[in-house]
Design a protein that fits this description.
With 219 residues, the chain is an alpha/beta fold. The chain has a single domain, classed as 3-Layer(aba) Sandwich (Rossmann fold). The protein has 9 helices and 5 strands. Strands 2-3-1-4-5 form a 5-stranded parallel sheet, sandwiched between helices. Helix 2 packs antiparallel against helix 3, helix 3 packs antiparallel against helix 5 and helix 3 runs parallel beside helix 6. The longest helix is centred in the last third of the chain and has 20 residues.
């Protein structure tokens, strides 16, 4: 984790974090609608990505490929590196003036891979990735999160209550360490209905300096 230096953060880069079932994926689409209505150039993305490394991670998560927990940690780090620095990646989009909203980033690896394998490895693999301008953490009880996930057709390897309870604790550790290192983190109540969660996010983004109201038409 980076030492306290807010200059390291990536301007225009916003990350959503939370347990499986917290609603981060649902809310990325609603954030895109908010930005479109306000004429804010934006890009919605997620990790793991659709790159070869990201697709490998997805297959491991679905249980289609067997891999050691340490292997998955390396795969996520490789996918993240390309996602950030590759052509058309996060840095390029942010520098072009777009607001990039990403469903999961470093803290997910520190929580999930930190639980599945020795915490030192995910910490080392992710130490040099720069913090986003803003991280929004979706706070939800593991029991409620898994109630939501249980409605899905296929569960991933981490989508079990005992895992999620442990991951929740790992997330708390990662959040505390990130905050100490200077990351800007805001928590929202993800147990509320979808619209209420969107309203919370809109308030957070507005406070962060993103004008979500459409501009006044020119005369």
């Amino acid at each position: 984790m980076h030492s306290k230096n807010t200059d390291l953060s990536i301007k225009n880069f916003i990350v959503l974090e939370g347990l499986d079932g917290a609603g981060t994926t649902t809310q990325t689409g609603r954030i895109a609608s908010l930005f479109a209505q306000a004429y804010i150039p934006h890009e919605i993305t997620a990790e793991p990505t659709q790159s070869p490394a990201g697709n490998l991670a997805r297959k491991i998560l679905r249980g289609e490929i067997e891999a050691e927990p340490e292997t998955l940690a390396y795969v996520f780090a490789a996918d993240r590196n390309q996602h950030l620095y590759g052509r058309g990646g996060i840095l390029e989009q942010c520098r072009a003036g777009k607001v990039v909203v990403c469903d999961r980033y470093v803290l997910s690896s520190l929580a999930y891979q930190g639980m599945a394998c020795n915490s030192d490895l995910p910490a080392r693999l992710n130490a040099d990735f720069p913090p986003p301008q803003l991280t929004i953490f979706f706070r939800i009880r593991p029991e409620l999160a898994m109630e939501r996930v249980s409605a899905r057709n296929h569960l991933e390897i981490f989508e079990k209550l005992t895992f999620q309870q442990k991951i929740a604790k790992k997330y708390d550790e990662a959040l505390e360490n990130a905050a100490k290192a200077g990351w800007k983190i805001v928590e929202i109540d993800a147990e509320r209905d979808i619209k209420s969660v969107t309203d919370q996010i809109a308030a957070v983004l507005t406070q962060a300096g993103l004008p979500l109201e459409p501009p006044e038409p020119k005369e």
